[in-house]
Design brief:
There is one protein chain. The protein is mostly helical and 341 residues long. The chain contains 16 helices and 5 strands. Strand 4 (272-273) and strand 5 form a beta hairpin. Helix 5 packs across helix 13 (255-268). The longest helix is centred in the middle third of the chain and has 22 residues, at 142-163. The protein is globular. The two termini are 43 Å apart.
């Protein structure tokens, strides 16, 4: 709400703005007359940067389109101008988060378990809809959008955790831990988490921390170099594709690359040629979709205890608090290590 208090509602992922506002109105016990008059509620997204946008009543799946640190506000039209982002929720106050307490295996396994759940929820047709229909298919691609959003969240999480760690020794230790987590995700055949962590460590605000990288043991420097080679987009991601081809299901691929391949297939040739269906193109797309089916053809079995500390780790991994503002990440980076480029 405009005063930063909030109400919680349960809603379908595909709910329209109208449905969400109806639930909020009911929850706030707005009377019929109030809703019908000028002070009817509108739904607004407010990003952490302060950017605002009013959502149209017919829009659907708005949850999947929110930025990482964006929030939904329900307000009347006359309070729109006074909306400001929530006070910075992210603990920019340096301090130890869960990642310092937990073993790398536990974090990696919880990442894999969660990403497998998200990956399994995506219907094969969402991949096709995403490429063929773009914006129009929002409702049809909600689960896929959530996974893509999560991928970006993990990338920012890596940078956030490192940059909130003020002590150089601790930061180098955390860097080593993150490389270990990436290695275990790779062992788990969770290439989505693996890729996201490597991309996160390659963020310019992190890679410029010369003193931190220098403190990393040689063994881990070499390991990270190998990881960089594996995620190198050179020759159309040749190294990654070769590694992936040797893996047996269950596995979680780096989903953005599947979408890139499908987009290339779709835009590279017409679906209709002289009024006839381009069967070859559709066969290629079907083949791609079949590989997704193959990746999920066996269940993923990870032994995760239900102890209180494990449940705490699970909650941490599923609700990552991240800074998604690159300028803020650079600010923190220069505060930690002013010198260098």
């Amino acid at each position: 709400m405009p005063d930063h208090s909030y109400v919680t509602i349960r809603s379908r992922l595909s709910a329209s703005v109208q449905d969400i506002l109806a639930s909020v109105t009911e929850k706030l016990q707005y009377s019929e007359e109030q809703s019908a008059r000028e002070d009817a509620l509108i739904l607004v997204t407010v990003a952490s940067s302060g950017e605002k946008a009013v959502l149209q009543p017919s829009e659907e799946c708005v949850f999947t389109t929110l930025g990482i640190n964006s929030h939904l506000f329900a307000c009347t039209r006359d309070t729109f101008d006074s909306l400001v982002p929530l006070p910075e929720e992210i603990p920019v106050v340096p301090g130890d988060t869960e990642i310092h307490r937990v073993e790398p295996e536990d974090i990696a396994n919880h990442l894999t378990a969660f990403h497998w759940e998200l990956f399994r929820c995506i219907h094969e047709l969402e991949f096709v809809d995403y490429v063929f229909h773009g914006e129009r298919g929002r409702r049809e691609t909600a689960n896929l959008e959530l996974l893509l959003q999560r991928c970006s969240e993990v990338q920012h999480w890596v940078g956030t955790e490192l940059l909130l760690c003020e002590s150089l020794g601790k930061r180098a230790h955390l860097l080593k831990k993150l490389i270990k987590i990436a290695a275990i995700c790779k062992q788990n055949q969770d290439m989505l988490s693996f890729y996201a962590i490597v991309i996160g460590l390659n963020n310019a605000a992190i890679s410029r921390l010369r003193l931190t990288w220098e403190k990393l043991p040689g063994k881990f420097k070499n390991l990270f170099r190998k990881f960089e080679n594996l995620t190198d987009p050179c020759r159309n991601h040749k190294t990654y594709r070769e590694v992936l081809a040797k893996m047996k299901p269950p596995l979680i691929p780096f989903v953005p690359l599947i979408l890139k391949d499908l987009t290339f297939l779709h835009e590279g040739s017409k679906t209709l040629l002289d009024g006839l269906v381009n069967v070859e193109k559709l066969h290629c797309i079907a083949e791609k979709v079949r590989t997704i089916r193959k990746y999920r053809s066996r269940p993923l079995c990870l032994e995760l205890e239900a102890s209180p500390s494990q449940l705490q780790t699970k909650a941490y991994v599923r609700q990552l608090r991240v800074i998604d503002n690159q300028n803020l990440l650079f600010e923190l980076s220069f505060k930690l290590e002013p010198g260098g480029h």
